[in-house]
Specification:
With 429 residues, this protein is of the alpha+beta class. It folds into 3 domains: 160 residues, Immunoglobulin-like; 77 residues, no CATH class; 142 residues, no CATH class. It is built from 6 helices and 20 strands. The strands form 5 sheets. Strands 2, 5, 6, 7, 9 and 10 form a 6-stranded antiparallel beta sheet that branches. Strands 1-8-4-3 form a 4-stranded mixed beta sheet, with no helix packed on it. The protein has a 4-stranded antiparallel beta sheet with strand order 14-13-15-16, with no helix packed on it. Strand 5 and strand 6 form a beta hairpin.
């Protein structure tokens, strides 16, 4: 059974049975190395894999929540207590998007966790950040260090403190608590709490979009600016009712505090078991990237879709062992895409998800507040491949990035898909 441990910085005494030491500091912390985002989307036991969310507490304070699994940390015998202890350092730097050279706020905290029984549990905590100007957009550079491993994870997060419908005014929480869920999707019929920072607002407004968005087009294909989509239904809920909400029906739910203004917070409901691939539909749909229209239609209209998908992979692999290898690699990438890239649609349908599934993990990842660049191959090889993704600044989802498409990607895409169709796992190098 999973146990949850709260690093509540204002309540250290109440949790002293779990935490041997907890130091919170509001002074700048300068990491010894430059940020390196390589390997950000690959399960790697050498690096911690924290998740983050930011909520606006009031007009001048935003709270950076973080969460990490104990199995991603290294526990060593403490020289002081002789107990198995993990040591964590979390630091942040807050900057305005329009003035990236000026630090608006910074700070760090050092935490120790004792885990003598090697229990698998989830550790969570937060740091409050001072936001000097409300009507601004910011970004946050976060550094998460496992001091025992000497391993580092870097992240860039956007922070909006501008309107009543700013994304960070809302946060998904567990029912009847204020514990963040660290995701922007829920299960069909799963209860949750939606926290909104401005208690003076009596109602929140919901717009429901039932449609099923198309997956990303190949990187060489021209795409037209999508036409505005009308919501299928709308209603309001009182802030009091937001303590326990249940949405039923796959689709996208956009929450606002002012229905006459743009913006808001997006919540998705997808296939059962999401982000894992557990249903026939979840197995079928990502095959759009490596099938022709005719092949996909044949699979989609089969009497037993699951069996048809199994047969498809068996035909590619030629034998059961190879088919299992292909399935594990392909859907493993789908699940990673769902975990990291889900925004206003499933992660596997996004531009980053599409590239990740077909090409694999990039060799290098470079980030700024508005772009993310993936690099495959080495400069000396002569066949280096770059993908640049631009942040959708006006999106109601915090994680929307759009690929800068180019016809030059045609050859690499055809090569990659052909590898899959020949029963080989493609890894761009």
């Amino acid at each position: 059974m999973k146990k949850y441990l709260l690093f509540a910085f204002l309540l250290v005494t109440a949790f002293s049975a779990f935490i041997s030491a907890c130091y919170t500091t509001r002074v700048p912390y300068n990491p010894a190395t430059k940020p390196d985002y390589t390997g950000a989307y690959t399960p790697d036991k050498q690096k911690p894999l924290p998740f983050y969310t930011i909520e606006n507490i009031n007009d001048s304070v935003s709270r950076l929540h973080f969460q990490v699994k104990s199995v991603d940390l290294l526990y060593k015998r403490s020289n002081i207590t002789n107990k198995l202890t993990a040591q964590i350092l979390v630091s942040y730097t807050l900057k305005k998007i329009e003035d990236v050279r000026t630090i608006a706020d910074s700070g760090h905290t050092v935490l120790n966790d004792i885990n003598e029984n090697a229990e698998i549990r989830t550790l969570a905590g937060y740091i409050d950040m001072d936001v000097p100007l409300q009507n601004e957009k910011y970004y946050v550079e976060v550094t998460f260090r496992d001091l025992n491993k000497m391993a580092v994870n870097y992240e860039l997060l956007s922070l909006e403190h501008k309107t009543v419908n700013a994304r960070n005014n809302f946060m998904l929480c567990t029912p009847r608590s204020h514990s963040p869920l660290f995701r922007n999707f829920v299960g069909n019929g799963e209860p949750f709490k939606l926290h909104y920072y401005n208690t003076g607002k009596p109602f929140l407004y919901v717009k429901y979009y039932k449609g099923n968005p198309d997956p990303a087009k190949p990187p060489y294909a021209n795409t037209m600016t999508p036409l505005p989509v009308m919501h299928d239904s709308s209603w309001r809920i009182s802030v009091r009712e937001a303590d326990s909400i249940v949405f039923k029906g796959k689709g996208q739910y956009v929450i606002t505090a002012d229905s006459t203004q743009s913006g808001g917070f997006s919540i998705g409901i997808y296939n059962d078991g999401f982000p894992e691939v557990t249903t026939a539909s979840a197995l079928l749909e990502p095959l759009r990237y490596i099938t022709t229209r005719k092949e996909y239609t044949t699979l989609e209209t089969s009497r037993n879709v699951k069996a048809a998908v199994d047969s498809f992979w068996l035909s590619l692999g030629g034998n059961a062992d190879r088919a299992r290898e292909l399935i594990s690699a392909y859907y493993g990438r789908v699940e990673i895409a769902n975990m990291h890239f889900t925004s206003s649609k499933e992660g596997w349908k996004t531009d980053r998800g599409m590239v990740y599934i077909i090409y694999g993990e990039p060799q290098n990842v470079y980030r700024s507040w508005k772009t993310e660049t993936w690099v495959y191959g080495q400069d000396q090889s002569g066949n280096m491949l770059n993908f640049v993704f631009d942040r959708e600044m006006e999106s109601v989802a915090d994680n929307d990035f759009k690929l800068e498409r180019n016809p030059a990607y045609n050859v690499s895409w055809i090569t990659a898909v052909d590898y899959w169709k020949q029963g080989q796992v493609y890894r761009a190098k």
